[in-house]
Amino acid sequence: MPPTAAPLTAERILEATEDVLRRHGPAKATVVDVARELGVSHGSVYRHFRTKAALREAVIKRWLGRTTETLAGVVEGTGPAPEKLRGWLAALFEAKRHKAGDDPQLFATYSVLVGETSDQVDQHIAILVGQLAVILEEGVRAGEFAPCDIAGRARAVLDATGRFHDPYYAGQWSRPGIDQDFTEVCDLVLRGLRP
Amino acid sequence: MPPTAAPLTAERILEATEDVLRRHGPAKATVVDVARELGVSHGSVYRHFRTKAALREAVIKRWLGRTTETLAGVVEGTGPAPEKLRGWLAALFEAKRHKAGDDPQLFATYSVLVGETSDQVDQHIAILVGQLAVILEEGVRAGEFAPCDIAGRARAVLDATGRFHDPYYAGQWSRPGIDQDFTEVCDLVLRGLRP
């Protein structure tokens, strides 16, 4: 990419990093590779990200953040908690499946990167469990869900639907019958939340 | 191992294969390796298993069969279906965790082998779903579980508890809090089966 007059923002660096990851896989995407991609000195990238680890953490956070932002929109929506929960689970499955199906190379690359930094996975899971907890609380308050240990049950809902969001299962997401399997698990979970 | 006068049964060959797998990992365990282990000609092993693939299939089937046999005992037991289901899920988690914890090298080796032969995985899952279906049917007949599409719901129960039996998650089975997580998911599933 030729040098450009646009200011070198963290966002531009992260976009370029994603391009490098898409084309070259997880082994590449060092600060030097990204600087070359942007046509800038690696010193100017270092001013934003001091190490390769910091750059990778930021790009993973951005990647996972795209999913949690979409889901936050569902949490903030209106309507009965059971419908909201079903919508949230469907949006999570859809977001992951979309990422895996549209750009399998980038998805595989991110899955490797994410697997290397368990902190990021733990933080991502904590955000998802937190969003579920908000929906569960709404439902319990409205008498739509049974009273429960909210945090524990939110984690249980995430665990119980793992086949439809854990990247490990991405190979199964285009199988015939997977949508039926998803509906069956959602039905079981929703039934389990009833008072 | 020195030659022995004991007759060369399929079972003895499979035991020796497992020893070879334990010590050398999945790359080894060819017919020749196993014959050497037994101190017999590879011709005599070939009389039982015609190819390396046939030998591997048989040893995987035996390995997975140990779990399903234990679980079949739970299915055949007496008592209310909800308790039986909880016992079955606990026995499955325990069997897998036991295998993973006692002999991590062999467990990792088998996980690789099993991953290579998706037919065996599909058959194993079908057996587990079949056992769950028997328990669900009992519960529906006794009015303990809500009427449902038995096969679909049995699969949903297996899917919903995947974190506690899919070998992919073996690294999490010794985490503090995993038993609590397991109980939370079981509670949610059992609640979901109620009429």
From TrEMBL, chains A, B:
InterPro entries to which the protein is assigned, alphabetical: DNA-bd_HTH_TetR-type_CS (IPR023772), Homeodomain-like_sf (IPR009057), HTH-type_TetR-like_transc_reg (IPR050109), HTH_TetR (IPR001647), Tet_transcr_reg_TetR-rel_C_sf (IPR036271), TetR_C_27 (IPR041478)
Bilayer-spanning residue ranges: none
Family matches, as SUPFAM superfamilies: Homeodomain-like, Tetracyclin repressor-like, C-terminal domain
Record has Transcription as a keyword: yes
Boundaries of every HTH tetR-type domain copy: 7-67
UniProt KW keywords: DNA-binding, Transcription, Transcription regulation
DNA-binding region, residues: 30-49
Protein name: TetR family transcriptional regulator
Organism: Streptomyces monticola
